[in-house]
Description:
Helices cover 40% and strands 12% of the residues.
Amino acid sequence: xxxxxxxxxxxxxxxxxxxxxxxxxxxxxxxxxxxxxxxxxxxxxxxxxxxxxxxxxxxxxxxxxxxxxxxxxxxxxxxxxxxxxxxxxxxxxxxxxxxxxxxx
Length: 104
């Protein structure tokens, strides 16, 4: 399979699979590819093609909620989201849903 990298360039890949790039050793254009580097490459490609990037929208209708968190709680949220491999928003949605499901 060949993927388009923009500007008329492409790359041949044998398969696409979910791997942890911080655990597996993968090279891209002579450089070790990490999760952070892969995200940066994806953002760059999306920006060059006029896309914001990010995850697809949620299936159901949503509304925005703004809230303030103490710095230590925000840091804990960031760390937990990174560890879980999800966004802070996704982790917060899951936590609220779990809390409300307990009958709160």
